[in-house]
Amino acid sequence: HTWCGRAFSLRSTVVAVFPEFRPRRLRGTAAMRRLVSETTLRPRQLILPMFVAEGAAQPRPISSMPGVVQHTRESLRKAAVDAVRAGVGGLMIFGVPQTRDATGSGATDEHGILNVALRDLRAELGDDTVLMADTCLDEFTDHGHCGVLDADGRVDNDATLRVYAEMGVAQAEAGAHMLGPSGMMDGQVGAIREALDDAGHQDTAILAYSAKYASAFYGPFREAVDSQLKGDRKTYQQDPGNAREALREIELDVAEGADAVMIKPALAYLDILRAAAEVSPVPVAAYNISGEYAMVEAAAANGWLDRERTILEVLTSIRRAGADMILTYWAAEAAAWLD
Ligand code: PBG
To answer: What is the CATH number of domain 43-338?
Structure first.
């Protein structure tokens, strides 16, 4: 042991090395591991994204997301009550309309499926949970883009902001406590904040999808909402190779009035999440998205991964990277395990 038993300096702290220090001491029993565990994972930190389909007679399975369905209004209500009983911190609702048009008019219509479902849930759950709404047009447009198009077929940023503002007010009126603008238009948080305040909804919060990447992992979600998109969202979502602009987006959203910010996807972007958590003055959320869900479910179905252990490790890792809250399709199930 000539090389050990010395002390060396790491980040200006003097640390002992083997055999003085044996890291395994703190791993020897379950009680010891519990005592020194750094990361908590609690049901209240989990938010369940849910889909509700207009005119559905029964819940419809989503083949690339086994276990997740497009709900009917009635099944949504029941599943929401169950999730809240399991202790989840919130519900994020996505609407799947029966008809779509160029401007996504189902999004602003008080009788549109998302607004109707929000009303149902607020009536059922009151303030027992945080009811969140996806504030974006892609489910409602016949071209599948997150905004309205200009004469050349490009997504028109500022025209889209006017629709988001109207959509946000409709959602607040329908009972949403928190809005999740996910379209990555410049200025969307400020436009929605101003419209909410003008309409007397000062208390409706905004969870800004600040850093949302143009990701292949959204594939199963596109099936979940019957997306009409051809092409991609690269003119508004971020390039996976870029880190710096994520922090810039957060800064802008906070300046525009975001109450919390989100990083999405989660697993392939834990570095972005860590960087965001270090600088954000508001709570940070991460979205454990559809493709991340599908990967684990597919591997578990093949017997290649231990499903429960993998899910809990995924969620713990997202927390460890810095997320205060996690949107995950496993929210209700994981909450029940954690309870
Ligand atoms: C767009 C939106 C998307 C997701 C949430 N909101 C998809 C997209 O940008 O194409 C993806 C969520 C998931 O993959 O689980 N409004």
So the answer is: 3.20.20.70
Q: What is the pTM of this model?
A: 0.95
**Residue reference for tokens 């989100």:** 262
* Identity at 178, one-letter amino acid code: M
* Closest residue by CA, ligand 1 atom 6: 182
**Distance (Å, rounded) from C-alpha 134 to C-alpha 180?**
5
pLDDT band at 339 (very low <50, low <70, confident <90, very high): confident
Tell me which residue has tokens 């759950």.
125
Q: Which of 133, 41, 135, 48 is nearest to 90 (CA)?
A: 48
- Binding-site residues, in ranges, read 222, 233, 249, 290, 329
Counting atoms of ligand 1 from 1, which one is nearest the CA of 329? Answer: 15
- Cis amide bond preceding 23, omega within 30: no
Size of the chain, expressed as the number of residues it contains:
339
Place of tokens 């809005």: 179
Q: Which residues are bridge partners to 91 per DSSP? A: 48, 131
- Do 277 and 322 contact (CB within 8 A), yes or no? yes
* Cα 113 off chain centre by: 20
How many whole angstroms from 262 Cα to the centroid of ligand 1? Answer: 13
DSSP state of 152: T
Q: What residues line ligand 1, using a CB cutoff of 6 Å?
A: 134, 136, 138, 146, 182, 218, 221, 233, 289-290
Binding residues for 5-aminolevulinate: 222, 233, 290, 329
pLDDT score for 7:
57
Kindly give the distance from the C-alpha atom of residue 38 to the centroid of ligand 1, in angstroms, as a whole number.
Answer: 31
Residue 230 is among the residues annotated as catalytic for this protein = no
- Ligand 1 centroid–CA 329 distance in Å is 13
Angle between helices 307-321 and 331-338 in degrees, nearest 10: 90
Query: What's the pLDDT at 9?
Result: 60
